[in-house]
User: What shape does this take?
Amino acid sequence: MAHSIPPETTDAELVRRAQAGELEAFEALTSRHEQRVYALAMRMLRQEQDAEDVTQQTFLSALENLEGFRGEASFSTWVLRIASHAALKIIRKRKGLNTVSLEEATDNSENFDSIPHPEFIADWRQSPEHLVERNEVRRLLDDALARLDEKHRLVFLLRDIEGLSIQETAAALELSEANVKVRLLRARLQLREELTRVLGDPERRLIQSPHHHE
Amino acid sequence: MKCEELLAMLNEYVDGTVDPAICAEFERHMAGCNPCQVVVDNIRQTITLYKDGQPYSMPVKFREQMHDALRRRWREKHPAR
Assistant: This one.
């Protein structure tokens, strides 16, 4: 394990050193980002063995392709991109699709018109800070995430959980920014809907009259 | 503002990146349309809940095994110095 590397060393510096042949630098990069990659894989795949495979494949791939990494994106964005593709590949395999796929076929059919409007609208009974400790809430979160189409789930994970920008997410997934925005909105609204049905205060539910701004 | 226009801007509004010129109209709408404000709040709460939740942790044994594999591969690529 690399202990001699000060934490303030930037990723960019570590990449340079790894490219120059320093194993410790590469190990430090791995150590810095492996948990994020693993968490992304687990949230996408919900299966430990698959998540481990994706994680290992990701860093092996980074190792193999390090010379070619130019640093236009950050190292973390780069490994998240590799992990995303690996996870999607597994999901497609599970579904029995070939990897070239369905992705191209259905892609640009998504637009803002096709997004379902919110139905259950209510303030939540407790704030996220209080909810986050509870085990049953965690299960609720996992289940709701699993019910998202993987295309939407992935965008939500990268953008809202990992904090990539819309542009970085688009680059990572080779999508247009417009496409990312539609998928993100769909994910956010679907999760909001499911969570609010459970966590919202039914006594304060807002009943909408036939949509007054349609 | 029509529904679809609102929905299209919802992401930006949640993230606080809406163009200020458009924002004024959105704000006017929100003032008169309480459900929209609640939806926006719900979305923000949803994101917070996911971000703050315990992330999955890599099993220690797997981590060791992975680092071993990486070191082995590294040494194959960069023979002894």
